[in-house]
User: Fold these one by one.
Assistant:
Number 1:
Amino acid sequence: MTATDSLLSLRRVSKGFGKIKVLHDIDLDIGPNEIVALVGDNGAGKSTLIKVITGVHSPSSGEVWFKGARRQEHSVKRSREIGIETVYQERALADQQALWRNMFAGRELTNRFGFIDVAQQKAETERLLRRHMGFTSKAITVDSEVRGLSGGEKQGVAIGRALYFDADLIILDEPTMGLSLKETSKVLDFVKDIRRQGKSAIFIDHNIFHVYDVSDRFVILDRGRIAGDFRKQDLSQDELVHKMLLLATTGSLEGEGSSAEGPGA
Amino acid sequence: MTSETKDAVGEAGGGRDWAALASAYKIQIAITLILAGLYLLFLTGNPEVFLRYDIYRSFMSTMPFFGIMALAMTFVVTLGEMDLSFPSVMGFSTWVFGTVYVSSESFLLALAACLLVGVIAGLGNGILVAKVGIPSIVATIGTMFLWRGMVNIAAEGKGIALVSLRESPLHEVFVGRLFGDALPMQFVWMVVIALALGLLYRRHRFGSHVLFVGDNAASAAMMGIKVDRIKIACFMLVGGFAALAGVFLTSEVTYFWPSQGDGMLLTTLAAVFIGGTSVFGGKGTMYGTFVGVLIIGSLEAGIVAIGLTGFYVQFLYGLLITASVTVYALLLRRQG
């Protein structure tokens, strides 16, 4: 895959904090309409990589390309403007605020004096809830506070919000953490929605079984380096689990003569 | 027939709406009931005083001095922050008002200088809290002493007589009386400010961002809200309105004294908390604060009027505040 037909391209991206280098020469491509799972142990650099992509951190060196243009300005706001949305576990929504406020947080529909068009925001939120997210319960309205929602519903609202704002790349940071089985399957349905709508996603999750079901590709990160990059058709779920275990115990994917590095590398 | 059916349906629908409304506005309803109960007590306790207009005129002339600050403080409390310095900021900015007025004889110039000083003092608080990262209660203990100390140094303990303020046309605009002697202008201003700040709070992007920052600052930052800027702006708002309240007070009594603002800290905060704004941030109403001001502002005179001695004032303040915040905590817990 070349930088031009990828949605997102990272070229030799490194990131360090002071003397500690967290990411080493990361090369990564995310294609259009592709769900990519980013897996790796704690401390592998997943969240740092995500923060570079979403603009929370600037890379220490290397290039980040999005939709064929090199990124110069690294900020969360700029990322959202160009179409990169993040759905953070727990931090996605403000608990005590009504859904119609949360849906438009930081992007309120206002007139030129900054006053919010409440009716419009409520109508859009209603449409999103009923039509796109399939909320049918009368108990949840646009005026409901977020804290009345279940964990899965919260993630659904956050993903729905990202889709509403036409994000091309949605980053899901551990969206199923702490959720029940039923709630998790709801979230995975929302992730499938992202593909149905022709968008891309980077999906971080500790649970290989969640990841495997919805993803097209798996990128394995280990101690700040990409240790493997596999397409789903090239790798069964068992093989993925095996590779993760191997990496955790031996620190390497080699040693079993596997198909080695994937197409992205 | 048809109209009857329609009415029945309308009533049923209305019933549901009422329940939803009652649930959404329970804090506002609770505080309104507290106010009504208090006035019922006053009216039965001393109908002679409370059935006459005089006491209400007196309330309306004195409430705005701390009420305006309480309205502005609602923003800072909603952030989950605290400001203890606004009475001192009021003192210093009013000294500036008096000094500039004495030397320039211009109400307008004095007003501008006073507001500027108030806003700058607020900016200082905001920077200490948002940029330097000092917890607001600590930072504003520091600036509380700082600004009061500056008044003491600058005024050397002396007051400033400002009787000639009455000759300025702006004096009428600020603290004149409408309808003969019936309606003090400062109360009209307080209502106007309450409406304006209420709109800002509930309907403006700024208010929405204040709610988000107070609710969950990390999430607000993720959503691209400039958390630091919102915090600084709220402290500036309080500084500016503390200065403005000082202008009202000084204009009313036509005298500046260096301890001006002292004693207003706790009554102002009490009005905000009785009004149902959460000290944890993210939740509050301007209506609640307004009614809180009406309650706190009439409590002292009311207690004396119904025949209790002044010794009861603090006790009843305490009772009312403790009871109301307990009610809110219970209301919100059931909801959660």
Number 2:
Amino acid sequence: MLNNEKIRLMTRMASFDEVEGKRDIAVNGYFRGDYICFQVVMSAIYGTIAFAVVVALYLLYNLESFLADFYKMDLMAFAKDWLTRYFIVLLIYLVISYFVYAFRFSRSKRRIRAYQQQLKQLHQIYEEENERRR
Amino acid sequence: MTNLLVIKEQIIKFYARFEIYITPVLKFLVMLASLIAINANIGYMSRLKNPAIVLIIALLCSFLPINVGIILAAFVIVLHMYALSMPAAAVVGLVFLILFVLYFRFTPKEAIAVLLMPLCFALKIPYLVPLAIGFVGGPLSCISVACGTIAYYIIHNVKASSEQMTGAEGVDKALSSFKLVIDMLLKNKTMILFAVTFCITAVVVYLIRRLKVNYSWYIALGFGSVINIMILLIGSMTMDADVSVIGVIFGTIISAGLVFVLQFFIHNLDYSRTEYVQFEDDDYYYYVKAIPKITMEAPQNKVRRINPQQPAGKRREYYTDE
């Protein structure tokens, strides 16, 4: 016999599973610290790529003056200057991504908790069904 | 008001029922409009202007995620740039790379804003996108609005200075056109002003509409529009940017009006779509199609029947609208 209540519950859970669920369950596999740490490291990689592109564009833009002054300029100071900029930009970017991913983690945790609640209900329904069969 | 609510429910009902067809058609139309606009403005590669290719790309995008559409649109822009001059393509490609790195990291879901922004710029109502995204998106949605603004100005500026870039031969000429494109981007105060203003507007609208006060949506819309006009006007004066005062004021008013209409359809809209799910238990396989319930039904036609010649003994009945 079909159990309508069970079908409703399972449908709701299956539709969650298909959309947000996949991501949320993946997120739920991490501890909070690990998840945020991983995402911040990924942000650092992306940020570094973006910064490298900006530096490449800058160098190409100033190619003529850069080549002309190459032997005269203080390369250490130049590198130090750009490294400082890199670290400042990266720091701002990482702080933002820390907050974004901390928020996303807590949000998906909340959804997973609701999902677990539904799992419990489903388990209860199964037990009731089994008892009835016996 | 009730009539409007009924229309709203009917639209939702219609959308919920035919969502599986409507979404690809909408994606196709947005993509088609974007490609036509790109080709009309910077169509330097004649092969890409072929209607068959445009149609194929748009059709492809109707079935693929909208983010793929954005990447394809960016690719088309870079190819057009390549036909114009190689350095321009390099700069534009690298700028798109930076935008994608920023954008895909945080707001991959709001791809549509990136495509709609240049289209709304072309229609002279770019203010629509930040106001609307403030209502539907989160605080980070401002990134996609800024990306869309920059994408529009890249196209716009290359079109304006295409003559200086054509026929780039030799290293010197290549370097100079390279410089020209970067100058165009960095020294374009109008672009920076618009991008910053739209970011602020989107965040302000988002913050106010989340407030737990009555009419927060209307306050957000009004305040967002005023902030938008104020920043653009003050910015255009202090930064010496190319902004038309009348255009800003009327454009914002029209956009606010459009958002007001949109707002009616999205406000309190806990829209659940038709779901097709499959699962199984010990006894059955289930293939479920779950259709969302619609809360408000269209009222039945009112029939009030007063019939004096009823047979005696039978109680006279009045049918009212309830």
